[in-house]
Amino acid sequence: MISLANTDERFMHIYQKFRNTVFGIAFNYTKSSADACDIVQDVFIKYISNKNTFNSDEHIKAWFIRVTINECKKHMMSSWVRRTVSLEDQTIPYDYGHEDLELFEAVMSMPLKYRTPIHLHYYEGYSISEIASLLGAKESTVKVRLLRARKMLKLKLKEVFEDEHQVHLQKNIQQIL
User: Fold this and answer.
1) 2-83 adopts what CATH topology?
2) What is the pLDDT of residue 124?
3) pTM for the full model?
4) Does the structural domain 98-176 have CATH classification 1.10.10.10?
């Protein structure tokens, strides 16, 4: 019979032996190394506080796998995870055409105080007075932010399309030569 270790040596042996297994399962569920590391910590804390005895290393491994899966499911069901999206995992929710994608990226690159009124006005269809009410701002503030945001978008998109035009011209010149 192998009992849960009360010694540092036994714990370190178990940790070294099973940490990659626990991390691999957690990463597979969460697709986030930070969340997987948190789950590894939670699982090993449960191991330390567990009073069970184990028959073999295979029994310990099976226990780690089951507990890791349960912790992952608990993590994935948490309201925090359901309401947030990792920046790395974000995808564009629509099938944009090339020009729409450039516009979307340009809008997303703007500061929040300009991006929000643009989004609310053009993507959600709110009027200036409705946006002012939603944001708790004056209508004149919303108008100014929309005006400035449009100017920023115009400059940004002009740069993007000029750069693309330059690339197309260079490709066409190379093909001719």
Assistant:
1) Rna Polymerase Sigma Factor; Chain: A (1.10.1740)
2) 61
3) 0.46
4) yes
